Structure formats: C-alpha cells, structure tokens
Amino acid sequence: MERLRGVQTALLALASLLLGCPSIMVEREGHRVFNPFYLPYLDSSPRDVWQKPDRVLGALNLEPDAVVADVGAGSGYFTERLARRLGEGGLVYATDVQEEMLERLRERMAAAGLANVVVVAAEFDDPSLPEACCDLVFFSSVYKEIDARVAYMEKVGRLLRPGGRVAILEFRPDAGGPGTPKADRLPLERVIEELATARFELREQHFFLPRQYFLVFAPAAGQYWNAVSAGAADTKR
Description:
Layout: H1 2-18, E1 25-28, E2 31-34, H2 39-42, H3 45-51, H4 53-60, E3 67-71, H5 77-86, E4 91-96, H6 99-112, E5 117-121, E6 134-140, H7 149-157, E7 160-171, H8 188-197, E8 200-206, E9 212-219, H9 227-236
C-alpha cells in the first residue's frame, strides 16, 4: 500500500508538471530554489529506482561515528537514510534555507525517532555550520542552486575535519525523465572546474546512477581551511 501511494504521488507530481502547474524552481529572496509544492515527489518510491540511495551511501564508505552535513536536505530523503546508517555513534546536520523544508525535516526525524539529526536553518551564501565539524558534506541536486559557488565551497572547506570529503550528485544535462529542469543543469566539467578553483580535487567518480553524475572531492594537497586540519598536517610532518 505504501509503495502504491508513492507511485500515485509521483504520477500526480508528473501530471502537475505536464499540465502547467507551479514551476519546479521558484525564487526566494532573489535565489532559485526547489519548489516546496513538489515535496511529495522527493519521497516517492519511483525515486528509489533511479536514485539508488543505499548504493550511494554504500559508495561513500562512512565510518559509524562519522559526522555528515546534508546540505539542502529538503524533505530528508537522504538525511533519514544517513542517520539510520550511522546509528547512535554518528551525527547528521540537515540544513536548508526554506522554512517549509525545515519544518518537514523536524517532523520526519521526530516521527522516525532519530536523535542523531540536528536540523539547521542555513543562509543562501553560508552553510551555517561550525568549523571543522564534518567528515562529509553531501549535496544531492543542490549544488546548482548555489549562486557564488566557488566562494560557498571555500566556506564548505572550513567545515571539514582532516580526511573530510565533499560529495556532489547532480542531474546530467543529457539525462531523460523527471528531474531538475534541463536549463538549470550543470555540466560535470563545470562542477569539477569550480571545485578546483575552490581548491578541491576530484578523488572519486561513480557511474551507476542512470540520471546523475556522482562526484567525490577532497581538499587539494596542502590545502587547509581551518586550524584543525592545519594542526593535523603539522603533526604528520
């Protein structure tokens, strides 16, 4: 029954798109963001088929005590899965800039009984998290919505602990099916170039997602944004 409801929700969302209902992207405070009208689609069961969330998280090889920031967490699709995978020893910061999303996140985590999630109201130009707090900063279909992306990613660098990484999933410009409007999609090469400008280097690229590219970055050699990372480097010398 739950799966049937998920299919129905996805079909209704698709029908809304085809019939000219509200745009997938809307403006908030001068920024383009995901339209909360389509929140039910984010958790529809058909998404599991192409998003492959368990395989995505498995590819990240997270330690049980890891701290992860799910930036632009939206409905909590990945937040809940991250929290369950990490268990009591780990922590997930679920951030968003829209109150509708934050409310949904709080409700969902409370209903799921997940005490290892901290919901954070972020700023459009700042992830609003403590320095050196994370082992992984995770972006699922969010990176494209950031305006000054290089400056933002430099701030993300300050969030990383030694060995920290950044994972980015975005729709490929040539991919079919529902998803980010094609006019808003970023070529993979541009993401890699922007991260390089922000002093990250590509460490992994996964190819199992049918509609998205999946990139994992780490700070470039010798790059430290915060005292914790710099101190760890000094210790290793």
